[in-house]
Design goal:
alpha/beta, Rossmann fold, 2 domains, 6-stranded mixed beta sheet, 7 helices, 10 strands, 33% helix, globular
Length: 252
């Protein structure tokens, strides 16, 4: 699709005897928040890594901002940001040094890094931690720093793999406020989570089960389908997922 920021066509990834992703086709349009929702081990991380060129598909095709992954990854590596499940910070560097390190990796000048560092330290409420070693930060502060490092070069598209895992409810809401602000500026976000209720905050949702995209749609449409399938009103995305797990074919 011409307007897709991320696009996967019948993506398959096999590790030995494990079929981690089993033929997923997905397109994330520019400027939307798309949620990949499913339990741990469903294939969400493998799918994201194929879409950003960190893992080569066994078969199928992945494109990011129109470029074939991983073959053309270098052409767009300064236009997207990837936040892995593991906090992407260096424990032996300070908060400010982490941001400088990632900014320079993306080819930013020192003045540009300094400007963005001031902005991000304020945005992430880390201004008083700039000189502190990241090893001494709390779990939530490390997660905020990891997101700041992902945003340092002002990417057009973001792939965020379980960015709210392990966060308390208040901090999860804070992160989603950041995501909505980013989307409002025209950026594209692909966000994976196993917190099913977070799907309510996405424009569209892909429900992933056992390496396949079992259902896809806007949250109101998914709830309408689940209401019909269950014969009663459904107002919660967790109920949608449970009904989908019990159904034989899902939505697709």
């Amino acid at each position: 699709m011409a307007d897709a920021a991320f696009e996967g066509r019948t993506l398959v990834k096999v590790f030995g005897e494990l079929r981690a992703v089993g033929g997923i086709t997905v397109a994330v349009q520019r400027g939307e928040i798309y949620g990949l929702v499913g339990p741990s081990g469903a294939g969400k991380t493998t799918l994201i890594r194929m879409l950003c060129g960190l893992t080569t598909p066994t078969s199928g095709e992945a494109r990011l901002l129109g470029h074939l992954m991983p073959k053309e990854r270098r052409a767009v590596e300064d236009r997207f940001g990837y936040m892995p499940q593991e906090r992407a910070v260096y424990r032996d560097l300070s908060v400010g040094e982490n941001l400088l390190f990632f900014g320079r990796i993306y080819g930013m000048s020192r003045p540009a890094v300094a400007r963005r560092t001031r902005e991000l330290l304020t945005l992430m409420r880390l201004a008083d931690r700039a000189k502190q070693l990241s090893a001494h930060l709390s779990g939530g502060e490390k997660q905020r720093l990891s997101l700041a490092c992902t945003l340092i070069h002002e990417p057009d598209a973001l792939l965020l793999d379980e960015p709210t895992i392990g966060l308390d409810p208040a901090l999860r809401l804070e992160f989603w406020d950041h995501f909505r602000t980013l989307a409002a500026t025209g950026r594209t976000l692909l966000v994976s989570t196993h917190y099913v209720h977070e799907a309510e905050r996405c424009g569209r949702v892909g429900l992933v089960q056992r390496g396949r995209l079992a259902a896809e749609g806007a949250p109101p449409d998914l709830k309408a389908w689940a209401s019909t399938a269950s014969g009663g009103p459904v107002s919660d995305m967790e109920d949608v997922f449970l009904i989908l797990c019990r159904s034989e074919g899902g939505l697709r």
